[in-house]
Design goal:
It is a single chain. By secondary structure, this protein is mainly alpha-helical. It contains 7 helices and no strands. Helix 1 packs parallel to helix 3 and helix 1 packs antiparallel against helix 5. The radius of gyration is 24 Å and the shape is rod-shaped. The protein starts with a helix and ends in an 8-residue tail after the last helix.
């Protein structure tokens, strides 16, 4: 008579231990995902902060390109207001496209291309773009691990009840267009 109670207690203990281990793993993945997103946000902020410097530098040489400069400024404003991976990816894609246009216009101004400030800003942008790419890969890897952990059996039976849901990947809005490098080298 005691034997069934011992087995039931042992099974209950195993289930409780499993739930604790699962919960802790999901919390770790969620927090790592939050940290990875914060890292992306830092890189995107650096790029957004660099844009006014680029615009001012180009404005000094190509002030009559007002509509392009306004588009760059508007794209930056949209990027600042974006929330969540999908909206941020859309806004940052627009900013990247307008930056490409800005650098294409800069091709027409030899004095601008030779300006030390402009060259330094280009180098900073290149480094920031590399940082964004690395941070996006890391974030997406963490999101993949979290989503996989949430969807696998038997975790999928508990994850939703424990408050864990799927996360969005930080994906390219227009992959073919955005895979082209930002034209910063002349």
């Amino acid at each position: 008579m005691l034997w069934p109670l011992v087995v039931a207690a042992a099974l209950a203990a195993v289930l409780v231990i499993y739930a604790i281990v699962l919960y802790n793993r999901l919390v770790r993945l969620r927090n790592t995902g939050d940290a990875a997103w914060a890292d992306i946000d830092v890189h995107l902020k650096k790029r957004r902060d660099l844009v006014p410097n680029l615009v001012e530098t180009v404005k000094g040489y190509a002030g009559h390109e007002r509509s392009l400069l306004e588009k760059v400024t508007a794209a930056r404003a949209q990027a600042l207001q974006a929330t969540g991976p999908a909206e941020t990816a859309r806004a940052e894609g627009g900013l990247a496209r307008t930056l490409k246009s800005l650098f294409a216009v800069a091709e027409s101004y030899p004095d601008l291309k030779a300006n030390r400030n402009f060259l330094e800003l280009q180098q900073q942008l290149r480094e920031i773009e590399d940082g964004i790419e690395a941070a996006r890969r890391y974030y997406n890897a963490v999101v993949r691990d979290l989503n996989t952990a949430i969807e696998q059996f038997p975790a999928n039976l508990l994850a939703g009840r424990l408050g864990f849901g799927r996360r969005e990947f930080f994906e390219l809005e227009a992959p073919a267009e955005e895979r082209k490098p930002v034209a910063v080298a002349f």
